[in-house]
Here is the input.
Amino acid sequence: MAKPIGIFDSGVGGLTVAAAIKELLPEESFIYFGDTRHAPYGDKSRDTIQKYSTEITRFLLEQDCKAIVIACNTASALAYEKLKEKFSDVPMINVVDPVVDYVAENTHGKIGIIGTRATIKSGIYKKKLLEINNKLKVVSKATPLLVGIAEEDFTHTEISRHAIKQYLDNKDFKNVASLILGCTHFPLFQTEIESFYQGKAEIVDSPELVADRLSHILSDHGLHNKDQEKEASYDFYVSEKTGAFSSIARNFFGADIRLKEKVLS
Amino acid sequence: MAKPIGIFDSGVGGLTVAAAIKELLPEESFIYFGDTRHAPYGDKSRDTIQKYSTEITRFLLEQDCKAIVIACNTASALAYEKLKEKFSDVPMINVVDPVVDYVAENTHGKIGIIGTRATIKSGIYKKKLLEINNKLKVVSKATPLLVGIAEEDFTHTEISRHAIKQYLDNKDFKNVASLILGCTHFPLFQTEIESFYQGKAEIVDSPELVADRLSHILSDHGLHNKDQEKEASYDFYVSEKTGAFSSIARNFFGADIRLKEKVLS
Here is the structure.
């Protein structure tokens, strides 16, 4: 039986993760939920984000999803433990752990992290990195304007170049060995941030690492789709249809998508 | 009796209006409500914005407010008529009408409007301007990134300069006679936008015009505070306390503020 994977985010950002899953696991169907009614999560409290994440996960499980991908750094930081506890019988993947594991193993030098205000304030990346190796040197910074720049399609402009400079051209961040893009919007800045570092830092984004982790977990649980006759299907829900989502979504997912609206609360 | 004025916005933006009211009417107290739990309004639907605006207005009236200022362009565009109908016994001021009246009377040439996606999509400024004079030439554009730039305190940087250029350096906007700043965040860009136009366009923002309108309406209704012995008081509520609000608020209001949290729904 070809059950879908459930993927959710506060908005469009998680589509970068959805795109990586489609690329690595083309035989898997998925249902994507973008909580546009409540976006952005980046400035909201732990309680609020846990409430929204729980409602979405419940909805995705009602749609018979076989695994849940929290494709949002803020929800991964603030709601993952809660969701794992509440929905303990379904594999749950967040976007933080695959990146933390990769970086802790592969980086020899200072590690930088950028993300939304809530993700950075949660300290989730730093905490998890130091749990693995308490000698790691870690710096972090909230870079919320990059979200707006990505959504306005102003990447690869003087605006994005100066914003990257404003955020990263300082003592803390100048000589990092790895920079973690701790927001699912930020893969759109990958090449620009590489240029800023002139290739001297490794820029680590989550989509491919998350897709890879998902693939392993599906294998471990015997959940890979074996019915490869039927083409995979992709469903996209938002909690509020906005003109902006559709036009932005193309940049993030790399293909046109058709939206359905579903209000959860 | 010194009843307060009620002022609300989706977040911090309306504080520019609150500051202008404090400046023009120092004897008047006010209660400010920033709906940070639901911010930003700029990408939400009419129904959603009407629901939130109604709950906030009800709360402000429960606090005995004698007049309501909708210090948010999106709510002014999408919820003003509804609120006026629902709460017909209290003077209600929006941020659009004072600006429209001023510009229609004083501008001889093309009028430009910038604002959030929802404000621009509503067409409210254009509609109201053409109702007064259907020969006016009006162009409009959504400039949502300016909201993020103001909230990050990146005004007067290369980022703001390039964003203004990206939005305004085109055939439609190059030769406007007046530019309406149709978002309560945008007064923070006043001088930069003036520089962009090299002084050749009048940049019209709402705070002073709204404070002036409020003053007239208080006079008309005999509602001015006459008890000038007691100092005016300013109360600030948010629907969700976020670290960001307090630090940002200073730039918008021009003074430190103490926040109370009040969840309405």
Notes: Chain B touches chain A through 28 residues (CB under 8 Å). The mean pLDDT of chain B is 93. Chain B is about 45% helix and 15% strand.
